[in-house]
Amino acid sequence: AQKITQTQPGMFVQEKEAVTLDCTYDTSDQSYGLFWYKQPSSGEMIFLIYQGSYDEQNATEGRYSLNFQKARKSANLVISASQLGDSAMYFCAMREKQTGANNLFFGTGTRLTVIP
Amino acid sequence: GAVVSQHPSWVICKSGTSVKIECRSLDFQATTMFWYRQFPKQSLMLMATSNEGSKATYEQGVEKDKFLINHASLTLSTLTVTSAHPEDSSFYICSGQGSNTGELFFGEGSRLTVL
Fold this sequence. Notes:
Chain A is built from no helices and twelve strands. By secondary structure, chain A is mainly β. In chain B, strands 2, 4, 5, 6, 9, 10 and 11 form a seven-stranded mixed sheet that branches. A four-stranded antiparallel sheet of chain B has the order 1-3-8-7, with no helix packed on it. Chain B is mainly β. Chain B has no helices and eleven strands. The A-B interface holds A 37, 42-45, 47, 91, 101-109 and B 1, 32, 34, 42-46, 49, 91, 93, 95, 97, 102, 104-109, 111.
């Protein structure tokens, strides 16, 4: 079964508007971490935001916020006031701590295009 | 954040040759390094996990004799694609894990094209 599911292959948003990128996850671990990365056309993976499974508050980093709904196993990324430079691929990822593995499981990604 | 440098960024080689990709942690000691492969318009797939001084652990379906991983020091891991073929053309990304925080830091990636 897929550990990370991103159902939106592509999204469009008007510049200065907010956009939500969906991510659901599947794990039986009680302790895990959720990440969002941005990958521009250059290929580098840029860390955006992190949410721990025990964090009670939604994570925020500047224009990025994570809408964490633990019961629904969703960790959607909200980008506010979109900028043209936000156009990129966005990957949701999870690390399961109880399994002892520290690698990240990535979703299939969402390509965001910001329209001027 | 910490810096992971990956080299080369681009490499084009002939079929049958071997290519080495280096991944260096510049300002931290990476006890563990992960190697990912990414096909065009697809996600990152973990290939192997390497711990300094020990043999790499390969994911199912990844040929360990084809993708040689060496993690001889806490700041350097290398991936060698041996006898490369066109189907090995892909984007390879490494990430290093610091010993203190466990946070992952990604390299810039290496785009391999095998002719």
